[in-house]
Amino acid sequence: MGDMTFKSYVVEEQEDQFEGSVKKKAIEDLPQNELLVKVHYSSLNYKDALSATGNKGVTKSYPHTPGIDAVGTVVHDFSGKFQEHEAVIVTSYDLGMNTPGGFGQYIRVPASWAVRLPDGMTMQEAMVFGTAGLTAGLALLKITEALRPEDGRIAVSGASGGVGSLSVAMLAKLGYSVAAVSSKEEEREFLLTLGACEFLPRKDFEKESSSPLLKGEFAGAVDTVGGAVLSTLIRSVKPMGTVVSCGNASSPKLELTVYPFILRGISLVGIDSQHCPMDTRETVWDRLAYQWKPDVFETLYNEITLDELGNAIDLMLEGKLKGRTVLNLEA
Ligand SMILES: NC(=O)c1ccc[n+]([C@@H]2O[C@H](COP(=O)([O-])OP(=O)(O)OC[C@H]3O[C@@H](n4cnc5c(N)ncnc54)[C@H](OP(=O)(O)O)[C@@H]3O)[C@@H](O)[C@H]2O)c1
């Protein structure tokens, strides 16, 4: 089937300009790895938007097919780990970065990158979660290890985005009081529907302040934006609180003193979904399928086709997308 063609979103570089379009590719164009998967769904993550617009920190060479997430059925697996037609999830590792990713109808990857689709989860649901859900799930592991719902409110920043909205919905499902920090007043109702108990404008967390500590308002926080917002959150957490740093949608910088750590005993925990060990991945995917699955699943995503992908990437870079964007590769 090496000469069989399939549709793929290909980003090409021309004189420092990056342009994406849907093209035909052949199976033989894919790298020589052991696991060939027919992709049914993928999803859009911030890293894909960076890869699709020429961020060389994510993708070194073009033409390239982004897509750090994929779910589909096994065509063959020369490692023997998976059976033909079995449903598998592949997220992160190098998928979509320098290995052709889930924005194409086929991927060929090492079998060690794949997780069996858990019972209790559809392929579409797996991509409503995707890397954003795995990341939110890893953050949830850290929060639930450190804090109980009665310890107080958990702030979630970038709350209307993928990692943020899933964190809000899953923390609320587990009984935590969630303060959703967002720039989008128009998404207040959406965030309250996900289970947030309050909406806090992001601008209140971006104010300049040289105070090493602020009023301790939250038991903990999940941050997806970095920069001033993360600095404010760390300084606003009560003694012995936990702050989980997941992303840098605003900035990779972090200005702080050591006082939140040595005067309040705050823990700052990082999440790296890309290098997360396989046993932890399997634990998180199993919990996403059952006890953590948000009750409000239908409100969390929008489904698009390959032809609509370019527009969705632009909206993501402008911070205008809400929740998760699932890519249907069979439509
Ligand atoms: N550590 C990991 O393993 C891991 C895994 C996945 C993602 N990430 C990172 O997590 C972050 C969020 O990813 P995502 O997929 O959830 O992206 P997303 O869906 O685009 O959401 C990002 C959200 O951040 C806020 N935001 C956007 N631009 C901003 C800016 N300039 N300043 C402040 N806030 C801004 C917006 O929320 P509001 O309008 O509601 O404020 C936006 O919806 C990214 O930095 C991504 O690279 C990390």
Description:
The protein is of the alpha/beta class. Helices cover 25% and strands 28% of the residues. It contains eight helices and 15 strands. The strands form three sheets. Strands 3, 4, 5, 6, 7, 14 and 15 form a seven-stranded mixed sheet that branches. Strands 10-9-8-11-12-13 form a six-stranded parallel sheet, sandwiched between helices. Strands 1-2 form a two-stranded antiparallel ribbon. α1 crosses α8 and α2 packs across α7. The chain is globular, with a radius of gyration of 20 Å. The chain starts with a strand and ends with a strand. Bound molecules: NADP nicotinamide-adenine-dinucleotide phosphate. NADP nicotinamide-adenine-dinucleotide phosphate binds next to α1, α2 and α3.
How are the elements arranged and paired?
Blueprint: E1 5-14, E2 17-26, E3 35-44, H1 46-52, E4 69-77, E5 87-91, E6 106-109, E7 114-116, H2 123-146, E8 154-157, H3 162-173, E9 178-182, H4 188-194, E10 198-201, E11 218-223, H5 227-235, E12 237-245, H6 259-262, E13 267-270, H7 278-289, E14 301-304, H8 309-317, E15 324-328
Parallel strand pairs: 8-9, 8-11, 9-10, 11-12, 12-13, 14-15
Antiparallel strand pairs: 1-2, 3-4, 3-6, 3-15, 4-5, 5-7
Helix pairs in contact: 1-8, 2-3, 2-7
The structure holds NADP nicotinamide-adenine-dinucleotide phosphate.
The site of NADP nicotinamide-adenine-dinucleotide phosphate has 31 residues, from helix 1, helix 2 and helix 3.
